[in-house]
Amino acid sequence: MDAVTYLKEKARLTNNCGLSCDICKFEHLCGNIQNSDPEKAVKIIEQWGNECPLETYMSKVLSVLPLAKTGILNGNLCVQDMFNIKVDCVNMTECESCWKQPYKE
After folding, report:
1. Per-residue pLDDT tens digits of the chain, which is 105 residues long
2. Which of 42, 45, 87, 89 has the fewest CB atoms found within 10 Å of its own CB?
3. DSSP letter (8 states) at residue 28
């Protein structure tokens, strides 16, 4: 796991420290574990990230319409239309990059 991914996943896990320490996977060690045992800190974040993958627009659609993947990948389905969000299609290299963005309710 690279450093950027670690920091993003840690922020997602801890809700930027908006969680109660009693339910956090770091178990009151947040400030110290990165310094005292960085390998353990990375392992905790990596394991949690694997158990709780980030929901994307694609995973949201495929959870209810599993056959939609072909339409997504060939550009027949647009995240902009399905979720009523603004997308800058001109600067996107492919539709899949839009679909892999984090889902926001």
Report:
1. 898 998 888 888 877 666 666 666 666 566 667 778 889 888 988 998 898 888 999 999 999 998 888 888 787 888 888 888 888 777 666 777 888 888 887
2. 89
3. T
| Torsion 60-50-73-104 (CA) sign | positive
Tell me how far apart the terminal alpha carbons of the chain are, to the nearest angstrom: 27
Model-level pTM? 0.62
- Helical (H) or strand (E) element with 30: helix 30-36
Give residue for tokens 């990059």: 97
User: Do residues 85 and 44 touch, judged by C-beta distance below 8 A?
Assistant: no
Q: Give the residue extent of every domain in the chain.
A: 3-51, 57-99
